[in-house]
Amino acid sequence: MRIVLLGAPGSGKGTQAQFIEQKYHLPKISIGDILRQIINNNAPLSKQIKSTIYNGKLISDEIVTELVQSYITKIDYNLGFILDGFPRTISQAKMIENNKISIDYFFELKIPTKIILERIQKRRTGVVSKNTYHLNNSICSKNINCTNSIQRFDDNTEVIKTRLEEYNKFTIPLINYLNNSCKKINYRYYIIDGTQTIQNINNEIKKILN
Ligand code: ADP
Ligand code: AMP
């Protein structure tokens, strides 16, 4: 299964990608995680990438498509994968089409802006596990040590405004483009209410994939 997760920042793509990865043993390709790894390793371009992410802008299509291409060629993509946060622009979607990689499922998570802001402000990432949590989530008080977690450097109210503008400017047109393509090519495109509980969204996705 080749799966793409779409949605605004904070809509729950990473959370659902973690679930699908564990449940279906599919490799997860999260572009945001790959970019943050490049920054942490001080790799070439890391300064440029950090300042672009810090300003809430999208990284150029050239850099991102090259990265995805290098990751996808490392795995046997016929066995499937989850793309979390790619494509985000029409030009990125065309890179997938040009490489003749067919996508089996698109899941678009929809949530209103006011919930996005709350989720982004309370998102934390485990230092060791790299998993994502919400500060109010009961999982924090149960079995995960959330004191050993950090807040992403781009998760603040000012930056999120620009990230949402970028989403409206580039990703909404992509979603319209995909929906038009769906009618022609018969993609399976599902819109999911992202305001449901994590568990309910897991179940909805599971039902579709099963
Ligand atoms: P994205 O990858 O789309 O930016 P995340 O998966 O990182 O979003 O989720 C953003 C924040 O919201 C995280 O703190 C996560 O734990 C929390 N979250 C994700 N899905 C839900 C949900 N359905 N209900 C409540 N909180 C959620
Ligand atoms: P995310 O972890 O998905 O929230 O992404 C964090 C940041 O990484 C975004 O705000 C962008 O700056 C950058 N990024 C992630 N995915 C892409 C993409 N497909 N195209 C361009 N920039 C991206």
Automatic annotation (TrEMBL):
Organism: Buchnera aphidicola subsp. Melaphis rhois
Residues noted as binding ATP in the record, renumbered to the chain: 10-15, 123, 132-133, 196
Span list, region NMP: 30-59
EC number(s) per entry: 2.7.4.3
PANTHER family associated with the record: NUCLEOTIDE KINASE (PTHR23359)
Name of the gene this protein is made from: adk
Function statement: Catalyzes the reversible transfer of the terminal phosphate group between ATP and AMP. Plays an important role in cellular energy homeostasis and in adenine nucleotide metabolism.
Single annotated GO MF: ATP binding
GO CC aspect terms: cytoplasm
Class of enzymatic activity (EC top level): transferase
Family in the record: Belongs to the adenylate kinase family.
Protein name: Adenylate kinase
Keyword Transferase: yes
